[in-house]
Design goal:
The protein is mainly alpha-helical. It contains five helices and two strands, in the order H-H-E-H-H-E-H. The protein has a two-stranded antiparallel ribbon with strand order 1-2. The protein is elongated and about 65 Å long. The model has no long low-confidence stretch (mean pLDDT 82).
């Protein structure tokens, strides 16, 4: 009997990829905090997760092996990077990065990434116990 990782791991495998993409986007915002006319961006996490969840359900209904025509996580995250609505007035250079907001978002994203890793670790531990017969 084959193991269906989509069913076994749930959405946690997708959250890692989306959170990694979000970390890159937020890091880019922080790096460009002093760049004139740079517009802060962020990943629309809920929309990316909904797309990943619908993709997961389609795969479960298809119950076939991956195909080169299936969408991967890279296609899901890149299209959900949006410009962030600024919370502060324009400082005159057209840059919309609020460094405190970016640092806070980066820290929260890092904690949620670690949490997703913990969930995946417990899922894999449970699968290893089941395979060993513990």
């Amino acid at each position: 009997m084959a193991i269906n990782f989509d069913k076994a791991l749930g959405v946690h495998q997708y959250t890692l990829g989306i959170r990694a993409e979000r970390a890159e986007v937020i890091s880019s915002n922080i790096a460009n905090a002093d760049t004139p006319h740079y517009k802060a961006r962020d990943v629309d996490f809920s929309a990316a997760m909904q797309a990943a969840h619908s993709q997961q359900q389609q795969r479960n209904h298809l119950d076939t092996a991956d195909n080169e025509r299936h969408f991967g996580l890279a296609e899901l995250t890149g299209q959900y990077v949006k410009f962030r609505v600024p919370n502060q007035p324009d400082t005159g250079d057209g840059n919309t990065v609020d460094i405190q907001q970016e640092q806070s978002a980066f820290m929260q994203n890092a904690l949620e990434y670690q949490m997703s890793l913990g969930f995946l670790d417990s899922k894999f531990s449970g699968m290893k116990k089941a395979l060993r017969g513990d």
